[in-house]
Write a sequence for this structure.
C-alpha cells in the first residue's frame, strides 16, 4: 500500500492540541493580542502568573499596572513587582497588528542580584570603615569615625559608649551622631544606663546581644541621649566593641520606628563593624599611652638649664628628631666644681624608648660617678664599666659615643681636658675666625668591656670657643640627592659666627642646618659651646 506524501514546500497542517501542549509546557507566560489589543490566547503559566488577565481583556487597561503602562506607552518591555513576584515582560510583533507578550518570573534572579549588591555594599562599607578607623590613632578620632560611619548605613542614630580611659573617671562619656545632625555631640552617661538599656551591661563585658524593641519604661536613660525631635524609636541593637583584652566599650544603634528591623545580616554586619571599631579604639588607647610615655621620657631627657661657671660662657643647642614619637638620644650635661666644671656631650645608638632608657642611664651614671672621679679619662672608663655591670647589659645594645671634658680656669684662659669615646672631634674656634678640629679618638662607650679611650688637651685663650656636636648636625640630609650637610658646611657656618657669643654661634649653626634640610626629617641634634670669658 502506498502512503500519500505532502507536496514539497507545503506546510503541514497545525495540530491545535499539540500546539497548546507546547505553549502550556513553557516556563514563561505567553499571551497574544489581536488588532484591538485584546487578549486572544494565554498559556498555563500566564494563568498562574497573571490570573487577573483572561481572554478578551484589554491589556492597556488590565489590572497588571506595569503591563498596562507598557501597552499604553507602546513600550516593548516592563520590569516590576506583582503579587509578591518580580515579573519581566518582552513584547514581540506578530503578523498584522497582533502582538505576543512573553512574561517570566525573575523573582529568584532578582533576589540573587539584590543579595550580591547587598554583599558588595557591605564589603565596601567595611572596607571604608577599616580604612578610616585604621587611620585614627587618637581616641576621640576613633569615636567620631565610629558614629559617623554607622549613620545612616546601619542606623539612624549611633551612640558609642567607651569604657573610661582612666579608672578614676566616675562616669563614662558617650558620643552620638544622628542622621541630619551637623556634627556628633557628647555627654556623660548616667550611672543607671547599664541597668535600663537591655544588653548594655552584657556588651560592656564582651557578650553578644540580640536587638530589642524600644520600650519607654526601660530605655528612658537612652532617650535622653537621642537628638531633640527624633520621634519614637523602633529597634535598638547593642554590640560590644572588642579589643585584644576584651570589651573596650559598646556601640548602640537606634533605628526609627518606620525603618525596617535589624535582620540577621544587619546584626552580623553591625557586630563586625563594632569589633573593628573596638580594635581601633584599643589601638588608639595603646598609642595614647605610648605617646604619653614618650612625652614624659622626653621631658625628663631634655637638656638641663646650663649652670653659671666663673670664667666661662656656656650655650647649648638641642633639636629632637622630626618624628614626635622618636625620643632624643642626644644629650649634654655640665657639672660645676670649685675649679671650673665637667661637661659631657653624647649620642646614644638607636631610637625610641630603648635609646631613651640608655640615655637616662648614662646621664644618671655620670651624675653619680663624677662625685668620686672628675678626671675625664678615668671617668669615662668608670662609666664604661658601670654600663656593663647592669643586669641586662649582655642582652641589649648600649653603644654610646661620648665626649667628657673638664674645664679649669686660669689667669690666661681655660685649660680643657677632653676624653673621647668614638665621638666626632670638637671644633676650636679662635677669635680671628680660624676653625680647627680637635681630634680625640677612643672607642664608643658600652661597646667592649676592655674598650680603650683617648684623651687630649686644648687651651682656650679669652674669646676662644670650643664647639662639641653630635653627628645629627653633619649627617643632616638635604632634599636634593640626600647630600649630607657635612663638616665643611659646619666649619663655614661656625667661622661666619666667630667672635660672637656662644648662643649666637649655636643659633647660626642651627639655622644653617634648617636651611639645608628645607623641611625634611632629621636626626637628633645636640651642641655645646664653651667660651673662655674675656676679662672685663
Amino acid at each position: 500500500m502506498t502512503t500519500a506524501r505532502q507536496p514539497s514546500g507545503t506546510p503541514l497542517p497545525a495540530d491545535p492540541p499539540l500546539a497548546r501542549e507546547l505553549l502550556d509546557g513553557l516556563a514563561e507566560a505567553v499571551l497574544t493580542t489581536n488588532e484591538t489589543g485584546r487578549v486572544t490566547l494565554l498559556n498555563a503559566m500566564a494563568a498562574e502568573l497573571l490570573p487577573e488577565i483572561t481572554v478578551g481583556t484589554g491589556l492597556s487597561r488590565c489590572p497588571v499596572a506595569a503591563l498596562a503602562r507598557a501597552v499604553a506607552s507602546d513600550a516593548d518591555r516592563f520590569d516590576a513587582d506583582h503579587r509578591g513576584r518580580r515579573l519581566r515582560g518582552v513584547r514581540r510583533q506578530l503578523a498584522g497588528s497582533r502582538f505576543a507578550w512573553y512574561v517570566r518570573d525573575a523573582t529568584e534572579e532578582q533576589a540573587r542580584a539584590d543579595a550580591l549588591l547587598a554583599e558588595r555594599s557591605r564589603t565596601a562599607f567595611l572596607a571604608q570603615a577599616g580604612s578610616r578607623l585604621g587611620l585614627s590613632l587618637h581616641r576621640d578620632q576613633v569615636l567620631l569615625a565610629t558614629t559617623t560611619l554607622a549613620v545612616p548605613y546601619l542606623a539612624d542614630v549611633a551612640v558609642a559608649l567607651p569604657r573610661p580611659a582612666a579608672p578614676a573617671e566616675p562616669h563614662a562619656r558617650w558620643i552620638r551622631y544622628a542622621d541630619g545632625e551637623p556634627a556628633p555631640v557628647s555627654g556623660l552617661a548616667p550611672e543607671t544606663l547599664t541597668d535600663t538599656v537591655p544588653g548594655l551591661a552584657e556588651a560592656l563585658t564582651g557578650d553578644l546581644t540580640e536587638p530589642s524593641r524600644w520600650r519607654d519604661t526601660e530605655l528612658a536613660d537612652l532617650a535622653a541621649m537621642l537628638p531633640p525631635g527624633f520621634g519614637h524609636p523602633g529597634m535598638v541593637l547593642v554590640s560590644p566593641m572588642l579589643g585584644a583584652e576584651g570589651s573596650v566599650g559598646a556601640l548602640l544603634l537606634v533605628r526609627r520606628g518606620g525603618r525596617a528591623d535589624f535582620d540577621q545580616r544587619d546584626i552580623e554586619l553591625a557586630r563586625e563593624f563594632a569589633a573593628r571599631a573596638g580594635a581601633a579604639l584599643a589601638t588608639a588607647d595603646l598609642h595614647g599611652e605610648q605617646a604619653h610615655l614618650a612625652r614624659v621620657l622626653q621631658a625628663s631627657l631634655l637638656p638641663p638649664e646650663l649652670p653659671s661657671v666663673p670664667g666661662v660662657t656656656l650655650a647649648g643647642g638641642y633639636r629632637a628628631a622630626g618624628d614626635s614619637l622618636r625620643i632624643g638620644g642626644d644629650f649634654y650635661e655640665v657639672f660645676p666644681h670649685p675649679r671650673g666644671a665637667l661637661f659631657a656631650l653624647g649620642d646614644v645608638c638607636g631610637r625610641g624608648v630603648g635609646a631613651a632608657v640608655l640615655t637616662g642611664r648614662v646621664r644618671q651614671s655620670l651624675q653619680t660617678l663624677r662625685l668620686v672621679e672628675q678626671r675625664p679619662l678615668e671617668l669615662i672608663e668608670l662609666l664604661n664599666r658601670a654600663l656593663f655591670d647592669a643586669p641586662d647589659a649582655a642582652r641589649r645594645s648600649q653603644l654610646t659615643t661620648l665626649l667628657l671634658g673638664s674645664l679649669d680656669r686660669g689667669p690666661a684662659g681655660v685649660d680643657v681636658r677632653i676624653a673621647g669615646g668614638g665621638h666626632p672631634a670638637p671644633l676650636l674656634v679662635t677669635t680671628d675666625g680660624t676653625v680647627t678640629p680637635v681630634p680625640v679618638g677612643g672607642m664608643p662607650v658600652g661597646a667592649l668591656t676592655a674598650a680603650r679611650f683617648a684623651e687630649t688637651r686644648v687651651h682656650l685663650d679669652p674669646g676662644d670657643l670650643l664647639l662639641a656636636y653630635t653627628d645629627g648636625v653633619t649627617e643632616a640630609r638635604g632634599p636634593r640627592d640626600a647630600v649630607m650637610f657635612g663638616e665643611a658646611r659646619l666649619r663655614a657656618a661656625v667661622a661666619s659666627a666667630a667672635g660672637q657669643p656662644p648662643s649666637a654661634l649655636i643659633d647660626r649653626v642651627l639655622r644653617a642646618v634648617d636651611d639645608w634640610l628645607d623641611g625634611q626629617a632629621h636626626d637628633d641634634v645636640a651642641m655645646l659651646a664653651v667660651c673662655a670669658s674675656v676679662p672685663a
The domain at 111-293 is CATH 3.30.450.40 (Beta-Lactamase). The longest strand covers residues 233-243. The radius of gyration is 42 Å.
